[in-house]
Amino acid sequence: MPASTIKPGLLFIGGQWVESAAGATFRTINPATEEPLTEVAEGRAEDIDRAVTAARKAFSEGAWPRMPAADRGRLLWKIGDMLESRVAEIAEIETLDSGKTITESSRVDVPMAADCFRYFAGWTTKIEGETVPVRPPCFNYTLREPLGVVGQIIPWNFPILMAAWKVAPALAAGNTVVLKPAAQTPLSALRLAEVAQEAGLPPGVLNVVPGFGAVAGTALVEHPGVDKIAFTGSTPVGQEIMRRASGTLKRLTLELGGKSPNVVFADADVEAAVRGASNGIFYNKGEVCTAGSRLFLEESLHDAFLDKLQAHTAKLKQGDPLDPKTRLGPQVSEDQMLRVLSYIDKGKKEGARLVCGGARPPGKGYFVQPTIFDGVAPGMTIAREEIFGPVLAVIRFREIEEVVRAANESAYGLAAAVWTRDIKKAHLAARALRAGTVWINTYGLYDNAMPFGGYKMSGFGRELGRHGIMEYTQTKSVWVDLS
Ligand code: ADP
């Protein structure tokens, strides 16, 4: 463990680094070695209250919502640049804390987080109202105002990136933020706070309080001083948050689970589709809410495709996530590894055919082998429930109507993909699939300008793009009597 990059974590509240009020701490573990990385101060209800109070003060009295929008933009741009200049350091922390490969964290997560701040920096000056044609002699116009104090609860699969997706648009719109990272992966969000502090963000505008969901998370969701909760995580936790947020009628955006269908037609570019199927399920060891965990293969292509996919999977190097050649790191925690293994057991018991993987490899670390099940029936647990691990369910189909129906037979609707050279079929399928994102002849592409979010039980609200920033604003109607 490089001691240079890891240091004990404190809470970041009102521009200060502070201990938790109760003096509580928790350990964060390196999932590749099962060794502790460091101690982090554990935020509890009292700390959340302190953070909300600081954020409220910064919103009601501070410069942030009042300064020229371009100045807010300049500061956010600076945060983006500073993140970029620290890619190596933050990527290493991210890899140590989460088990994701250094290739992913240094080439994707941290650079995209930096870009996200710069993308939303540009939006600060583009949040406009309207003039509304009301009856004369009156005049009506709208103001798009920030919501106030936003509570943001993020998961452990893309820690720095989810922090950026949440914090950048909220701040760009003039809100102040209390961010609660996941207990498994608090370190990179603390680095983001450091960067924000060095960039000159006024005190209280961004507060970062690591802690447990049931304690710090619940306190944030129920706090009457919080105007909105933006959450990314599992569907059951999203439901719980929705129930608890109703007490204070908070605005909510929820980005929840998925069981995304990846549909390969017989006329697809097979080599590209094999890579897409593999990336779709094995990227970030399957800990991806948009993972293409249900692979639908057209009957005539099924056997040859599966052979190629198996050969491709055999070549994926699993091991030390700090090694640039590694493609699959460990699951984020022991709990998560055990959960994934129990789904693999269910797959076997319910009669799916194990093609490869299916176990924990020998040695240290919370690894699960990349696993493919064929002959999966739609009713099986592994076809219905989100596993959040490197476990693929392969299902056959014969016709487009049949596969669209089967793909849509899910409580979730986060993403979907289709692979075909027939543009008509591709676009018809894209319209028929009930999902917030559809990829055609690719998988897992993201851009800060795209709206991202779920249909059905994958949640509501959109992140990124114009839609994403508007979720952090509210509209005021102003009347003027011109008579
Ligand atoms: P898990 O970590 O159990 O898989 P999630 O992935 O849904 O659960 O967790 C995402 C985020 O939600 C984490 O920051 C976690 O601490 C937080 N969280 C968990 N339970 C709650 C809750 N009841 N209220 C608020 N936040 C919660």
Instruction: Provide the gyration radius in Å.
Output: 23 Å
Classification by helices and strands? alpha/beta
CATH architecture term of the largest domain: 3-Layer(aba) Sandwich
How many structural units, i.e. domains?
2
CATH superfamily of the largest domain: Aldehyde Dehydrogenase, Chain A, domain 1
The bound ligands are: adenosine-5'-diphosphate
CATH level 3 topology of the largest domain: Aldehyde Dehydrogenase, Chain A, domain 1
Within the largest sheet, what's the order of strands?
A: 14-15-16-13-12-18-19
Helix fraction by DSSP (H/I, runs of at least 4): 25-40%
Mean pLDDT: 97
- State which percent range the strand residues make up: 15-25%
Question: What is the CATH domain class of the largest domain?
Answer: Alpha Beta
Biggest pleated sheet: 7 strands, mixed
Question: Termini separation (Å)?
Answer: 73 Å
Describe the fold and architecture:
39% of the residues lie in helices and 21% in strands. It has 2 domains: 3-256 and 458-478, Aldehyde Dehydrogenase, Chain A, domain 1 (3-Layer(aba) Sandwich), CATH 3.40.605.10; 261-447, Aldehyde Dehydrogenase, Chain A, domain 2 (3-Layer(aba) Sandwich). Helix 1 (45-60) runs parallel beside helix 7, helix 2 packs antiparallel against helix 4 (102-123) and helix 2 crosses helix 6 (187-199). The chain is of the alpha/beta class and 483 residues long. It has helices at residues 45-60, 69-85, 87-98, 102-123, 159-172, 187-199, 213-222, 235-245, 270-282, 302-314, 334-349, 381-384, 400-408, 423-432, 465-470; strands at residues 11-13, 16-18, 25-30, 35-41, 131-132, 138-146, 149-153, 176-180, 206-208, 228-232, 251-255, 261-264, 294-298, 353-356, 371-374, 391-397, 412-413, 415-419, 437-440, 455-456, 459-460, 473-481. The protein contains 15 helices and 22 strands. The radius of gyration is 23 Å and the shape is globular. The mean pLDDT is 97. The strands form 6 sheets. Strands 14-15-16-13-12-18-19 form a 7-stranded mixed beta sheet, sandwiched between helices. It has a 6-stranded mixed beta sheet with strand order 9-8-7-10-11-21, sandwiched between helices. Residues 153-155, 180, 182-183, 212-214, 217-218, 221, 233-234, 237, 240-241 line the site of adenosine-5'-diphosphate.
